[in-house]
Amino acid sequence: MTTAVLLAIIVLSGTLGDLAIARAMKRIGAADDLTHPRHWPQVLAAAFRHPWFYIAVSLMTLSFFTLLALLSREAISFAIPATAISYAAGVLGARFLLGERVTVKRWAGVMLVCLGVLLASIG
Amino acid sequence: MSASLRARTIALILLEVVFASLGELMLGIGMKRIGPVRNWALPALGLDFVRVITSATIWAGIFLLLLFFACYLLVLSWADFSYVKPISAVGYGIIAILGYVVLHEQVSPTRWVGVACISLGVALTSQTEVNTTHGVLP
Fold it and tell me: Which residues of B touch A30 (CB under 8 A)?
């Protein structure tokens, strides 16, 4: 029971942390075309000034320490489903919280990655 | 969408994965050299802590993980999270192949099937549009 709760916290806080980073960076990148390397220092500096960056780091820290707590109770293999599920959870969050368009092709890709990560980790 | 944007995105994701894998490897090597924490009393723990923060290998690992994070931030400033995340899983494949070719490790059939699934999934995802939220802010 506790293991399930810990796994849920790891997946949720880790995924929400990633989504919060993605949201901050989307906002920074939306202003101009900043994809050229000469803009990169400016993009990174903007990240550190963005409030969502700190929300993201807090959530990722929570996920990391929950993982440590899980590893102190269970073998490392208990963390594998969390890693695999986080790919699907991340894309689901990107669809509904960030408004990204996830086509059938992208969903198929993500599902194959989830299955692959699961198999590659237990194999 | 320009082909160069897709190429730049995939190149940066690959760089991100390489930095993350090397960084974790360096941290692993550094911590193995220091060995497991056996004595949890404060003075002994303090000594272990000093050994961690004076280890060049650990600092190399931290530096590589910072480079990974910088690449991750940059690529997310123009690419979809749902594009970047699945493609980042390519690291599992690279590690399995490197382990097999360079370190001559045994890779089980289950693991090869997993690597094949990941490769196919990464290939499919990489063909989708890099950015689907142009100008529309969440």
Answer: 135, 137
